[in-house]
Amino acid sequence: MIHESVEAAIRAERERVQNEANHAKGPNVAPVARECTFADFMKCSPITFRGNEGAVENIKREVTSSEPTTLSKAVRMAHTLMEQKVKAKVL
Q1: Interacting residues of 64 by C-beta distance below 8 A, sequence separation 6+
Q2: pTM listed for this prediction
Q3: What average pLDDT is seen over the chain?
Q4: Are 46 and 36 contacting, i.e. CB atoms less than 8 angstroms apart?
């Protein structure tokens, strides 16, 4: 009787471990990509953009390198950004 109880406990533990392994999600598991239509996007209640230009126009040429490779490139980048700022104030 004890032998049968031990075997049953071992069997139950093996099934539990196997069941956990089946449901375990590792770091490489990603959610399945699905189509997102405009209607689906609007259901998420996105914050309305309050501007007179499109978002793409606002970020155009604003992407810069985080680490300039030389001092001259850093100076050139700063000069370009200042020119853009001056042009934005004029408009």
Answers
A1: 77, 81
A2: 0.26
A3: 73
A4: no
Band of the pLDDT at 27, cuts 50, 70, 90?
A: low
The C-alpha atoms of residue 65 and residue 63 are separated, in whole angstroms, by 7
Residue recorded with tokens 């990603």: 30
Q: Are the beta carbons of 78 and 65 closer than 8 angstroms?
A: no
Rounded to whole angstroms, the Cα distance separating 11 from 44 reads 47
d(CA 37, CA 82): 39
Contact between residue 17 and residue 9 where contact means Cβ atoms under 8 Å apart: no
46 pLDDT higher than 80: no
